[in-house]
Amino acid sequence: MLKTEYHISKMDCPSEENIIRMKLDGLEVIKKLKFDIENRNLTVFHSENDDEILSRLEALNFGAKLSNSSTIEEGELVVEDSNLQSKLLWSVLIINFVFFLIEMTTGVISKSMGLVADSLDMLADSFVYGLSLWAVGSTVLRKKKVARWSGYFQITLALLGIIEVTRRFISSDAMPDYRIMIGVSIFALIANTACLVLLQRSKSNEAHMKASMIFTSNDVIINSGVILAGVLVLITNSKYPDLIIGAIVFLIVVRGAIRILKLGK
Fold first, then answer.
1. pLDDT tens-place string over residues 164-196
2. pTM attached to this predicted model
3. What's 37's DSSP letter?
4. Domains of the chain by range and CATH?
5. What are phi and psi for residue 66, nearest 5 degrees?
6. What is the pLDDT of residue 137?
7. How far apart are CA 5 and CA 2, in angstroms?
8. 174-177 long-range contacts, Cβ below 8 Å, gap at least 24?
9. The pLDDT of residue 15
């Protein structure tokens, strides 16, 4: 049995972990994947040498590099409880999708593009977790097809959002309601933190969740950005902080959609 370690510099949240899991799906030599998101490391336990592992990781452009490789006894390998992981994935999928609906609805009501954009980021995470669950018992070809559909759908929504942000920049639309922006984003921040805690329950005892991991999460940063935009709307009495954060998050969603599309290749 081989134990190969990779450093993946751009792996900083659970969504990217699931993208990597899907990318490596179908390689029969892989017996177990062990993720350490805090230190951005991936350990692959596999039965024989296979250059396809590194090739697939490099194709994601997450900055994957081989760190170390060694031989271990098969008795040292402890297989993860797939049922537990499935339950946790369902939990975080539901949390993300519910907050997508909440943020989309309140974003439209409050005229906040920041909340609308953040809701699409939540939807993007739901797609990733859903694809991971879909992969269980499904063919690789079918999974790739669903990944393409999801990616195109996300890009379409994000581009429509960018167009709407541009329109609001040049028009005289009313200012967003900063109270709804701040309040809903705080709850979204709590929800994302809860997702991180839930996901960590599927890891080995060595991979404890720490505060540094939470605050490097893209989702937490985005939530904080919307909260900041709400405060700036209050202070400056201007709609532009909301539009700026909205544009930034829409671009992040586009980047995530492109990564998902790569899974369909």
1. 999 998 887 778 999 999 999 999 888 877 776
2. 0.65
3. T
4. 2-76 (3.30.70.100), 82-263 (no CATH)
5. -70, 125
6. 54
7. 10
8. 174/111, 174/239, 175/111, 175/233, 175/237, 175/238, 175/239, 175/242, 176/110, 176/111, 176/112, 176/113, 176/114, 176/115, 176/230, 176/233, 176/239, 176/242, 177/109, 177/110, 177/111, 177/112
9. 64
